[in-house]
From TrEMBL:
Name of the protein: CRE-ORA-1 protein
Xref: InterPro entries: SXP/RAL-2_related
Top-level taxon of origin: Eukaryota
Upper classification of the organism: Eukaryota, Metazoa, Ecdysozoa, Nematoda, Chromadorea
Gene field: Cre-ora-1
Annotated source species: Caenorhabditis remanei
């Protein structure tokens, strides 16, 4: 099992390496984004900004947001494809928000560099963060890292308590999950778009075997 910190960086690396349109709800098995206004709101046409702001105006932190995400997805899907693809989709990690483009580019370079084994990326991101981040961004990075490490520890404790049968099934599912991410990561962007367009047309994401 990869750590929560590493897993978060994996999702970030895939997002940074992909120009697939932003997704709300479940598309292609990806988890939905956090509740709230999307980070790319200012990159949208003004009429779309108004619509999405109106959708989220009554949302309160901590509430479920399935309806708001669904309505946001409808607005996004109503935009021309070239507009959706032009949106600069920054990673949703708090310690990267507000950074200058030249600093973001250094993190992006690690995320996108396929010559760096994934197992080494968290260490490189950590080193880069310690070198370049300051103030609030560095504090948020430390908080993010500590939170993920705590979650990772708790997860491992639960994993250790699995029954032998559950442990065997878990390991098989983990292996399948890694294969899935590897396949998606290596696809051409046009193929990703085809699959995401197919998956988002299904009410519950990608097809599942029963």
């Amino acid at each position: 099992m990869i750590s929560k910190f590493a897993a978060a960086l994996l999702l970030l690396a895939i997002a940074a390496d992909s120009e697939a349109k932003p997704c709300f709800g479940r598309c292609g098995g990806r988890p939905p984004p956090p509740c709230g206004l999307p980070p790319f709101l200012e990159d949208l046409p003004s009429d779309a900004q108004v619509k999405i702001t109106e959708i989220w105006k009554d949302y309160k932190e901590g509430d479920k947001c399935y309806e708001e995400q669904g309505l946001t997805r409808e607005v996004m899907e109503s935009l021309p494809k070239d507009v959706r693809k032009s949106i600069h989709k920054r990673p949703p990690l708090p310690f990267l928000r507000g950074l200058p483009k030249n600093i973001l580019a250094k993190f992006d370079a690690i995320f996108k560099d396929k010559s760096i084994p994934f197992s080494q990326k968290p260490e490189k991101i950590d080193a880069l963060a310690q070198e370049l981040l300051t103030g609030d961004n560095l504090r948020k990075f430390q908080e993010f890292k500590e939170k993920k490490e705590k979650e990772d520890k708790e997860y491992k404790e639960k994993e250790a308590k699995l029954s032998p049968a559950a442990k065997e099934a878990y390991e098989k599912l983990e292996a399948l999950g890694k294969q899935k991410w590897a396949i998606i990561e290596d696809l051409d962007e046009d193929v990703k778009d085809e699959l995401f367009d197919l998956w988002k047309s299904r009410p519950h994401g990608p097809p599942r075997h029963h």
